[in-house]
Amino acid sequence: MAGTGQFRQKFRQRFADANSSIRKIKREDLRSVMTGRNAAFALGAAIVVIVIWVFNVGGGEDPTTAALRKTGASSPSAIMKEMKETQAPAEHSALDTPAEVIEKEKAERRSVAESDRTVQNPLFNESVEVDISTRSVAITSAFSGQRIVVFGAVHNSLQATAGQGLYDVIIVLEGLKSKLVSRRKSNVAGLWINTQSVEFESVPSYYTLSSTRPIAGISTPRVFDQHGIGFNHIRIEPAAKDPKRLPPEELKSFRDGIIRLKAKEGLYQRKPAGVEFIGRSLFRTSIDLPANVPIGKVVARTYLFRDAELIAENTAAVQLKREGLEALMYSFAFDYPLYYGVFAVAMAVSAGLAASAVFSRGSH
Amino acid sequence: MNLYLPIAEMPVNILVFLGMGGAVGFLSGMFGVGGGFLMTPLLIFSGIPPAVAIGTEAAQIVASSVSGAIAQYQRRNVDIKMGIVLLVGGIIGSAFGVQIVKELRQLGQFELFVSLAYVVFLGIIGSLMMVESLNTMRKARAGAAVSAHRPGQHSWIHGLPLKMRFHRSKLYISAIPVLALGAIVGFLGAIMGVGGGFIIVPAMIYLLRVPTNVVVGTSLFQILFVTEATTIMHAVQNYTVDIVLALLLMIGGVIGAQFGAVAGEKLKGEQLRFLLAGLVLLVCLRVAWNLVVMPSELYSLSSVVGGH
Question: ipTM score of the complex?
Fold first, then answer.
C-alpha cells in the first residue's frame, strides 16, 4: 500500500482547505455555500446522517413506554408480567372450573374481606352510574391524543369515607373489535419469514383497564372471564372458520403476542391504581387516549365489586370521529379513490413544477 | 410539531419527515436518481406501514421527476416513440405489480417479498456499479484515456422480430425487449416503491444501446408516467396513498434535490457512481440484515385485508 501515506497527506490537505473555506463563509445565499469542497462536505454529512438513520431506527429507547409512564399507566412489560403471575392453570380456562372450587375461592376472598371491614348489607342493593367527560373526540390533523375522564357514582353507597375501600371499581375502556391476523416468523433456510398465522375474531382495537387496585385482588378469574376484564380474560378467540386447530399453548402464545404488540403500541394499557373514590360514592379515573387510538366508538364498561362479588355494572361511550380536513381526506381516499389518485398525481406534478420554477429563477 | 396522517393513521413528526425528504432529495439530486430506493426503506423503518410507504413514494417520485422530464424534453433528449413503448410495457407491469401487492398482503408475505426484491436488485446494481466505478477510477489514475465505450456490436436482442424504427435514438430494433424492459421496471416500481431509474438506465445503455444523452430523458419520461399510473392504481386498488405524507416528503425532497444537483456538479462521474454504489449496497445490507438476524419480536399483526 504505497498510496496510503499520500492519501493521508491529501486528506489532511483537503480537510485544512475545507476548514479555511468554511471560515470564509458569510451569511449569504445558501446556494453559494454549496460550492467547491463544501459540497463534498455536505455530501459526507448527508451520507453520515443517512447511515446513522438507517442503522439506528427501531433501536434505542422505546418512546411509547416513556409516554405511558408519564400518564401513570404501567409499561407494556408490566402487563406481560401481570398476565404471567395471574394466569389461570393452563389445562382449563376459568370458565371450566368446577362450581365448588369457585365457591371455595369466593368464600376465602369474602372471609378476607370480612376480616377487615364489616359487611352491613348482604343484599347488595347498590347500583352504579357512569359517564365520560366528553361524548365525542375529534380526530383532526393536529390530533396528538386526548385525556378523557370517566366518572361515576355508587347509589346507596355504604362507605363512610372515600378511603374506606368497601367497593372496588374496574373500568374497561374498549375500542371497536375487529378481525386480526397474527403472524409468527420462523427461520427458514437462514431467513426469518412469516410461516404461521392465526386469524382472530373480534380483537379489541383499544383496551385500557383502570381499577382501584390490581384486579387479581378484586374478584375471581371466573367473573373476569365472563366479562372480559383483564388481559388474561379479554375474549380473543380464533376465527371459527380458521381450519388450523392449534394446540392450546400455541394459541396462547399467539394471543399473548397480540397483547404484547398492542401494549407496545400503547393501545392496551393498564392503570392498576387508576380509579379513585372522591367521596362516599363518587369515583373517577382519567385516561389518556393515545394519538394512534383507532377511530370509532370507545365504550367504558364499569364494574362495581364488593367483597369479590360483582354487584353492579354500567356503560358509557365516547365517539372518536375524524373531523375537518382529516375527515375530508379520508372520505376522499376511500369513497372516490380514482379522483383521489388523480389529485395526488396533480399535487405531485405541481409541487415538482413549482420547485423547479422557484429554483431555476434563482440560478439563471 | 406532529401531524396526523389520514391514511397511515398515525401521528408523525413534521420535521423528521421533512428532513428525511430533504436528505434523500439531496442525494437523489446529486446522483440524478429518483431516491425511491432510499426513501421507501426509510419510511418502512420509521414505522409507516410498508404498503402505505410504497403507494405514497410513487406520488413523491412523480414530484421529483417531473421537472427533470420537462427540462429533458425541452432539450429534445426524449425519444417519445421509445418512451411510449416503454410506457405501455410499464403500465402493464405496474398493474400486475399492484395486483401482486394486494395478493401478498393477504398472504402476509408482502414484507418478505419487498425485502428480497431490495436485496437482490440493490445487491446486483450496487456491486456492478461499484466495480465499474473502481475500474474507471483506477484507469483514470493510471493515465489511460477513459472511453465512454458502447460495448459489443449486436446481440440476440437485435435478432428479435417486430422491429421498429426509433429516430431520436437512431435505432432499428424489435419492440419486444423495449416493452419487456418497460414491464419489468413498472412491476418493480409498483412492488418496491421505486422509480426504477437504476435498472432502466443501465439496461437502455447496455442492452438496447440507446445513446446516453437520450437515455436520461427517455427514462425520466417513462418513470414520470409510470409512477403517475402506479400512484392512481395504488390509490384505487389498495387505498395506500397518503397525500399528507407525500406532501411532506415532496417539500423536503424537491428542495433537497436542488442543493444536491449543485453539489453533484462538483464531483466527477465515477466518484459519484462510487458513492452511489456504496449507498445502494448499504441499503441492501440493512434490508438483508433484517431478514437474517433473529428479530426481537417474532409476532406481527395485520388487519384482514379487504375487510375495510
Answer: 0.84
